[in-house]
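Q: Here's a chain of 218 amino acids. Please give me its 3D structure as tokens.
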Amino acid sequence: MKTIAILANGQFPRKEYPLYLLKSADAVVCCDGALVAAEKHGIVPDAVAGDLDSVCRRALSRFERIKSPAAVARDSDQETNDLTKAVKYVLGRWPDAGTIHILGATGKSEAHTIGNISLLMEYEERFGLADKGISLDIISDYSTIFAITDGGEFHVGEGRKVSIFSPDPTLNVQSEGLVWPTGKVVFDNWWKASLNRASADVVKLKFNHKSKAIIILD
């Protein structure tokens, strides 16, 4: 199974781990304007995906000369953003993808950061990632972020900050391995289960029904 990295046009990673993921991936896809950041850091992606409204034309021309015009995946759908276009492109081009890491999805713009993180919940439903055995996450210099639709066990490491976000106020999450139990949390605002801390290496979460949730590990 292949590991694919998607580079969005937010804050380019600086720390060793996200840079390693970017450079060791089997393939790299840039979201639109992220092509300029990739070029600046000596990365030649395998494709550029998006509506191409923010990419530097000179950088795009250079990229087409190095790769080919076929490596530019233009999608003019205005109902989806460039990150969604890139994820859709990756799933279509690499059906053997087992892991998708999204880099550069946060920073620079709070609106883009919140939007990109929330999209992880939609991708689980829209693309059926769990059923296909595909792991998708957002990795930054500060956090690992992923969506879940049911409970599970997560190896996070004792002492790590663990935040749970959900747009579903009917969701009840029973937890083990967290300093502050979540069983009485009502998810009617974003802060409600944020900045908890792991009291064990493994955190166990149990949902009262399938729903949408985001886990952020700092």
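Q: Can you summarize the key feature?
A: The mean pLDDT is 93.
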